[in-house]
Give the backbone structure.
Amino acid sequence: MPRYRSSIDVSLPAAQAFTFVTDFRNTARWDPRVERAEKLTEGPIGTGTRFRLVSRLLLKEVALPYEITAFDPPSEGPTPSEPATPTAPADGSGEATFEGRTFLFRYRDRITVEPAGSGASRLTYDAYLSLRGPFALDNFLLAPFFHKAGEDALKGIARALAREARRQGGSGASPAAPAVTPEEVRRIVAMDDRPVLRNLRITLAYHRLSDQLAGALGAENANWCTYATWASKTAGTFIREEELHEAFRRLLEAKGRVHRHLHALHRALHDLDGDPGASAAPESADDLEPILSAVDAVGRFIREGNRTVFDELGGLFAALLEELASHPEPDPERFERFLERLRPGEARPDRIDTAGTDPVGDTGPEDGGADRLVSRPQGGQDLLRDSMRAYYAARFEADAKRKAELVLLGNALGGLHEQTRLQSHIAGALAAPVAEIVVNRMRDALAQRLGQKILGESPEAQAAIDRFLTPIGEEAEEVARRISTRLLMRLPIPDEVLELGEDVPAPRGAALYPTLLARLDDRVLTGTLERFGAYPTRLAGLPLKDRLRALAALALSRVGLHRPIAAGSAARDWAALPDRMRYIFVYFRSRQGTASLFDPPFDEEQTAAIEAGEVPRGPL
């Protein structure tokens, strides 16, 4: 019969790890194939406790019953009022066995947790699955699938226990992670000569700020910096030029038109040269370099937007956390004095100017001497002032629902301010003059390679170049726009990738909105969301194609064949602020209780390299 057995080390004591993994209501938090889970019996978890897991198999929901048939929790030592458990292993380890069967399957999961020293533990996951009756002859067909499912589940357990370790530690922050200070923010912002490393440092700093804010506001609610961590990591795709170039190259090669135009240009220039033995043009692969570098015009807007937002909001959150440390009790008057640093007035899109040439970057010249973009703030910070007030009120709010709404309000107002400022950056990235840049750079490249013999003295050569370079530039601009839209409209977050042009789906294994945010009571919050069609979302006014797609998804979700969605939340035009904010507001509300968003954005080795001032090798 197919069997999977493997072990992992986790940073929780054995008793805490055992308690978490043996409560099978948590399986939806660590098994990607489980949509939801429930406990069917009353009382504490132990032998005889039954659970029901709902998994998805071939687009159909399948109910999987489980019962604990053996349960030996780790011993933490008897208390005066609680005698030692006779069944508990003496070495501090624990073991539980879960068994179940359906019409087709029978299965067993055995979970063992043992101490590993220094407050850590080793978890062993041992599972088997078998078809029942005459179907058992086909068990060998299940083995590859079952092994993959076991690996995914164990990786999910590792991530979930790491989150649990951070949650039980209070703020969720690693003890080794120092507080982000306004001075550190200024140092990171000033890294103009290391833009790739700066983006990585910004992403890490947002993660640390997120954990610090969780310590002040509560780890049960994601804050603005939590979301900013993953947005900044996504922006890094544009800032790390080699990744952007590779995506651009693949799409150019897939379409083929640029290569055909380059070949025709080579032939025309060769014919004009009049020397049948000469090679008047380089290989077309060489000509792709100035074309590929033109897409950096898109990356410049994203890079400057990433720097601009961190300069303002990263610095503000760092200062806020320093201020909150001196507020053990509410002191509204003192906090208002703290807010006096913010400019009065409405938020407005930045003006983007050019200032000299870009400096040498992490891997060489970044834009081939292109002008460096500089953001100039044009509006005030009233939205940020109200955002900080909401966080401050949440800091001292005892009612869980009221606190959740205040955090959501703070997130929403901060997000609206940020996206308003970034309007020029986003529009610029999607409308970068790639065609003009390609034509100019190709002309310069040909002049350097071929000299004046052809280009300077032959009107026919100039006409041939113009005839072929114009469609090359137009094709490159179309491809660059497609790449930019595709990358801007995808948001990888832990456990999934959100397509921003589609309606916001429910988190895996959960309802569309956290229970505390299923209904909203705060009038300022509802008014802010209503202004952008995010509360409630509506299908009215959408194109027929989008309405039909949303209605189909809703119908499938009602019969368990699709995750629930916020119908009408999709951003059809990312360059339009109302479209963007509708999606972002629904995303904030939907994922505010998603613990995985507090996960570190990089692994330990990558984090160590970034903190040492190095750009890690390999994919990020």
